[in-house]
Amino acid sequence: MSALPADVNATSLNPMLTRRxxxxxxxxxxxxxxxxARDGADPAINRPYLDADFEQWVERFERPGRxxxxxxxxxxxxxxVKPGMHVADIxxxxxxxxxxxxxxxxxxxxxxxxxxxxxxxANIEHRATQAGLLNIAGIVSxxxxxxxxxxxxxxxxxxxxxxHFEQPASxxxxxxxxxxxxxxxxxxxxxxxxxxxxxxxxxxxxAGKESVIHEIETAGFHLAxxxxxxxxxxxxxxxxx
Length: 241
Prior knowledge:
- The chain is of the alpha/beta class.
- It has helices spanning 15-37, 47-50, 54-61, 67-70, 72-79, 96-105, 118-130, 168-178, 199-204, 209-218; strands at residues 86-90, 110-115, 136-140, 153-159, 179-190, 221-227, 233-240.
- Strands 3-2-1-4-5-7-6 form a seven-stranded mixed sheet, with helices on both faces.
């Protein structure tokens, strides 16, 4: 950029021109933040969960015909969960998988139900009490932090929730911190394929499988498995580097 002539100073410039330049500069400076904001989910898709009617979501999530419900036993078995392990069900929802993991890890294990919805967490804890499961702890998370203790879990499990992350880089960093060395991250989410997936998936899910893999590997994980277990969803297994 060339300097102003010696006989011209900033205050002698056309005020409208100066304001226009300042406006353009502001847009230029804000552009990286706008791009970053688009890297995650639109907050609108998470609003229905903030004051959720729990029974309504049980009917929606835990019903025959929903692939991850129909294949729930195979999904849990494929994680390799064992007695005594500590597991985090991130985006636990109604607690379908939380309760299943709690039975698998036994009294010596622990399961953290992690969700942004206080109502979901309260109801999961109620369901756990009714089922006599004393190894479940509820955590109300934020969009940037799981609030899990460092090096506290062997397995992080995310089912049909990754596409709801508004700040995926921050959440992945939080999960990475929470996993023990060599810990496992399982991510199940909808296959998003242009020209093949439903209009609902294309409009609701922000990223396809390859983009998800790239984001997670960038966060310090190694892709260890791409299980051909489901049709509507992919099933990815990562290890902490």
